[in-house]
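Ligand-bound model needed. adenosine-5'-triphosphate.
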Amino acid sequence: MVGGTPVTDGERLVPALTGFASILPLVESSSPAQVRRNACRLLARTAGLPWVRCLALDSDGRRLCADGSDTVYRCDDFRHPFAHVIRSGTPLLGRVNALRGRMNHPDFLAEAANLRGDWDLHCRPLRAPGAPYDWLGVWGMAGSRATLAALQGSADFAALERLLCHLWYRLLAQDRSHRQDQNLRDSLRRLREDQRSHALADSLARELIGHSPAMVRLRERLVRAADTGLAVLLQGETGTGKECVARALHRCSARRDGPFVAINCAAIPETLLESELFGHVRGAHSAATRDRAGLLSAADGGTLFLDEIGDMPPALQAKLLRVLESGRYRPLGGGRERHADIRLVSASHQPLVKLIRERQFRADLYYRLNQFPLSVPPLRDRREDIPELAEHFAVSYAAREGRPTTSLSPSALAHLASGDFPGNVRELRNQVEYACAMAPVGQPIGPELLPQTAPPESPSGIESWGAAFNLREVVRAYEARLIREKLRQFNGNRAKAALSLGLPKRTLAHKCRQLQLDGDLP
Ligand SMILES: Nc1ncnc2c1ncn2[C@@H]1O[C@H](COP(=O)(O)OP(=O)(O)OP(=O)(O)O)[C@@H](O)[C@H]1O
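Prediction:
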């Protein structure tokens, strides 16, 4: 209803509104490029112009670009009319033929080749409303002289041009502000990620001790790796802390609430390793007296740490590769396939590349395991970490044993820092714990209590322990030392070491666990 009169045919009854429908697409344009395209179409259709173009000035104001084509006109290249218009800020009108003669820019000539020579070409600068020097671009139109002359004095044409500039400018501002918002959001996200990574790396420094550049870098890379689901391969000498790194990685990862399951492939007989990993059904082998889920199943939703992966038998390597590729496996003797969602972290103290060359390790498995390589540096390459590590071990020893903390004297720390630790951090830890056990309560540890200069092992030297004497500790340290020596003597063979010590094998294994000598096997 308009003025109480029913309107049945708007176009006929309200002729002044006839143009509005054709303006709608222009007004509804959602990007600067769309508004330019719609304005060109509208002008060409309503004015009957055969050729209309709109060029946009780029953000640094040096080039005019045509939508939907690669053509770029430099604003300081006066071989085309658009440079004259944008530089002078005034329109240009000329006969196509004449302009073709004066302007020889190849792209302009190519465009003008489609225009009739007796047409006029009219180019107008377009600027942001209310900003006399804020240029948006140039639009050009070609057609008969009469049509273009009529346009010049047309209030509708002037209105269309203003509308184009208004919409274009607003959409441009909107685009800019979206981009700024996006940039802000991106930098905030990056900042938060960086802060989180730094906070994580800092808190890691309380469990993965050491502030040497190598350790700082290792923690930073660990946090990065933890953020991904990639398989991590840890390479490093024995005792450098590979298992520590694997645990820390799990704790920093999204799977932290899931299980962390570790297995040492070298410590389990080849025949049992597959059963241990994949599980078995009753009767699958002589020891399988009942169904048993394997470690893959135990690690479902968490992290599986395969230590000494280089010792995995080749047949099992192929099966592991399949699990990694498909997430599926079959328990030993079982018909039904299972699925496990695990993140794999593996470690090796022997260079796997060498094993590949010797055909003992599958190259395809290596690449699958090594999606994120992390190398754990030997202690000799980060000696500056020794004092911090030593103090950490002294504190954790005291906490574990329920004793007051014994500090290490500066000369003991200096002595340790100059030491050669082929067994890396584990060897350092053993030395510090030995010294803690030997130290008189409440007195700092001097270098003489460290194992290299340790008291003689024969009862005749017992007096030199003096105030340090604490029977339980001394016996423990003595036992540890003796067992370590026997294991070394028999090249890690526990059966022979047990025989020579007059102990059952199981008792020796128990003592090794108690005295934390498990990792000391060569
Ligand atoms: N950066 C560290 N901070 C604190 N403790 C560490 C660090 N590195 C290693 N350790 C300690 O040293 C001992 C050996 O570490 P771990 O078992 O992780 O070494 P590994 O490289 O896995 O040894 P292996 O090659 O024999 O399996 C552990 O008691 C561990 O807690």
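The pocket of adenosine-5'-triphosphate is lined by residues 208-210, 236, 238-244, 307, 349, 389, 392, 425-426, 429, 519 (CB under 6 Å).
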